[in-house]
Amino acid sequence: MSELDMHALMEQIGRAARESGRVLAAASTEAKNRALRTLALLIRQNEEVISLANADDVASARASGLPPAFIDRLTVTPPVLETMALGCEQIAKLADPVGAIDGVRPQESGILVGRMRVPLGVLGIIYEARPNVTIDAAALAIKSGNAAILRGGSEAARTNAALGVLVARALKESGLPEKAIQVAPTTDRAFVGELITARKYVDVIIPRGGKKLIARLQEESLIPMIHHLDGICHTYVDASADIGMAVSVADNAKTQRYAPCNATETLLVHMSAAPDFLPLIGAIYAKKGVEMRCDGRAMALLSGAGLDVKRASPEDWDTEYNAPIISIGVVDSLSEAIEFINNHGSHHTDAIITTDTRAQSRFLREVDSGSVMVNCSTRLADGFVYGLGAEIGISNGKLHARGPVGLEGLTSLKYIVLGHGEGRS
User: Fold this and answer.
1) Nearest CA-CA partner of 324 in 230, 249, 255
2) In terms of domains, do 161 and 119 share one?
3) Domain check: are 250 and 369 in the same one?
4) What is the DSSP letter of 159?
5) CA distances (Å), 287 to each of 35, 242, 250, 290, in order?
6) Are 46 and 169 in the same domain?
7) Are strands 181-183 and 147-151 parallel, antiparallel or unpaired?
8) What residue ranges of the chain have pLDDT lower than 70?
9) Residues 105 and 200 in one domain
10) 393 in a domain, yes or no?
11) What digits encode the pLDDT tens for the residues 47-75?
């Protein structure tokens, strides 16, 4: 497809999204919930169609030599389909944020001033590998009253197209515009370039993919983005930590799964807790095949316990491994831990293990991240776990949404003013 044709395609899709989005923004909660329940039903009824499309995608991916982890993310099994359907039903049960009014206060002039929650408009969602994102994104966009243009990766093109047909059917059967959610009919990289510069039609870009994709969008997008680039997450074991709890949490935070962006990559330990804690967690990591890259003090304690460890390089403290590797450091104080996290982290998710309420309070206030946790695993940083129903992604930015982005994160606020004939004097 030529550059001119790609631009024309974006114009066509963008115009339909903008027009349909206005209708969806004004839709009733009942209509939106009906669309979500219908979509859940259609997913279950069309399992064979989706599975056949996905089998073709998986076969092509295998033939292309893509790695097993990628194939795993791409594969849609019956349990994955059921999770998609359940997600739609769960989002339908959530409170509708659109139109909610709060903070109404009388002013000296006699007017009442408050704020109303409204949709963002048209979302451009760019993602790779995971077909479930098609349904998650569609469901969240529908409930939050946003139109969406979905551009998935080429490896999942057949699966995404099959799911997109069901989304359009669910909208139409529920009396909503079927063009409110559109799966881009092309996986050409040039379409991404059109999408991220279509300011006339698109209000927010939301990328879900690897660093290479997000770095490109950061360079080229003319539209505001909700995104995170790195997930360099920390778990800090404080002086007063319950050692048993610390071992359990640090194990889960690193080894429950290695690839997700909320897995802990750096473990910090207060010097007074290190002698008791490090040999215990080190033995677990060693048994599970986790490579430990340590500073001098951590290295001395772990090697002294007979464990095989490596010296950390300066680059290790700023690395997201997404692998069975962890950096381990010993600090002298809570203040040092907080400073280290703020300097080396990616402002994604960081946790403290402590029984000291003052340490908890300081950590919560002073660590500059989208999610800050006390006495639990960083792996819990997830929209579903947070009760958001699902998430469109995680943001480590400071404007608008931060942390897991669910329904509320896909809305904005506008001021509303209620008067009784007042004027400016």
Assistant:
1) 255
2) yes
3) yes
4) H
5) 48, 22, 14, 8
6) yes
7) parallel
8) 1, 389
9) yes
10) no
11) 999 999 999 999 999 999 998 878 988 99
